[in-house]
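explain this:

___
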Amino acid sequence: MRFGRRLWWRQSLDAAKAVAALLTNHGGLLDYLEVVGRAQPLVHPAAPCVTIPTTAGTGAEVTRNAVLASPAHQLKVSLRSPHMLPRLALVDPELTHGLPPAAHRKHWSRCAHAAD
């Protein structure tokens, strides 16, 4: 999903959380982004958001931030706030049963990165 000319969402769960936050807070995306934006705090709670992960390992369904890539800056940046925690996460391991083994390995790699 693309927002503006230079910023791309990398994951649908992050996009949902960011859109929910922007629905209830005035201003644009760059007002709240870290590093490439103004990093202003979100003042109002995000609109209700329900996340349903279909892969395992990222934890995006229960985090208080959204990560996006800014190709113009060659960076990944965050929109982060305690107000961004999804209201409900529906986690069903059966949704991952049809994934190829490479997808599971990729997500375990992300877990190891997070632990670092």
About this structure: The mean pLDDT is 81. Strands lie at 2-3, 7-9, 50-51, 65-70, 75-80, 88-89.
